[in-house]
Design brief:
The complex is a heterodimer.
Chain A lengths: L3 E3 L4 E4 L4 E7 L6 E7 L6 E7 L2 E5 L2 E6 L4 E6 L8 E8 L9 E2 L3 E6 L1
Parallel strand pairs in A: 2-11
Antiparallel strand pairs in A: 1-3, 3-8, 4-5, 4-9, 6-7, 7-8, 9-10, 9-11
Chain B lengths: L3 E4 L2 E4 L5 E7 L6 E7 L5 E8 L5 E2 L8 E7 L2 E6 L8 E8 L13 E3 L3 E5 L1
Parallel strand pairs in B: 2-11
Antiparallel strand pairs in B: 1-3, 3-8, 4-5, 4-9, 5-6, 7-8, 9-10, 9-11
The chains are: A mainly beta, B mainly beta.
């Protein structure tokens, strides 16, 4: 079993739709949970991060972490064509400065005008 | 948010030459930076962890003599691809760990990424 599983997609939705992206993980030591957005030929951009369990909202984006189920989600409300990108979940354990990120494989989202 | 600058964004070089890529944290100090490689339509592959003032830690299968990493200051890490060959052509991305410098960010184990460098070796 891989440490982080993410539905590879791709995912295509109409403009204005609510998008739900999910990852599951197996390592209970993970405490930091991040969602990155990556446009083609660009570096990943941090969208949201959450420490431990709970919800976090930032504009049209909501991140949820359920540590009991080892499941994290990113919701995008009122999706826009500019949201079309690859979304990567990532997580790490708080073991110090050298803590590596463990990534999901990423899902490519296309928002149709 | 924290800003990481990576330069150059694109480089073309002849086979056998060396190429240096710079990664700078602009508004925070980072004792730890990371170097990744990404192939088309794939996720990021960690190459090495760059530690300020000490040797880098390379992932299994990554040639340390091929990919030289120097982290001479708290805001700068460099990756040099030595004697580059066409198979080294790829997208290289750096990141800096926010929670490793001064200020109140210590402990926040969050990485911010540079924009990436596209290397094409002819």
């Amino acid at each position: 079993q891989k440490e982080v599983e993410q539905d590879p997609g791709p995912l295509s939705v109409p403009e204005g739709a609510i998008v739900s992206l999910n990852c599951t993980y197996s390592n209970s030591a993970f405490q930091y949970f991040m969602w990155y957005r990556q446009y083609s030929r660009k570096g990943p951009e941090l969208l949201m991060y959450t420490y431990s369990s709970g919800n976090k909202e930032d504009g049209r984006f909501t991140a949820q972490v359920d540590k009991s189920s080892k499941y994290i989600s990113l919701f995008i409300r009122d999706s826009q064509p500019s949201d079309s990108a690859t979304y990567l979940c990532a997580m790490s354990a708080p073991t110090g400065a050298n803590s590596k990120l463990t990534f999901g494989k990423g899902i490519t989202l296309s928002v149709r005008p | 948010g924290a800003v990481v600058s990576q330069h150059p964004s694109w480089v073309i070089c002849k086979s056998g030459t060396s190429v240096k890529i710079e990664c700078r944290s602009l508004d925070f100090q980072a004792t730890t930076m990371f170097w990744y490689r990404q192939f088309p339509k794939q996720s990021l592959m960690l190459m090495a962890t760059s530690n300020e003032g000490s040797k880098a830690t390379y992932e299994q299968g990554v040639e340390k003599d091929k990919f030289l990493i120097n982290h001479a200051s708290l805001t700068l890490s460099t990756l040099t691809v030595t004697s580059a060959h066409p198979e080294d052509s790829s997208f290289y991305i750096c990141s800096a760990n926010l929670g490793t410098g001064t200020s109140g960010r210590v402990g926040k184990n969050i990485q911010y990424f540079g924009a990436g460098t596209r290397l094409s070796v002819l």
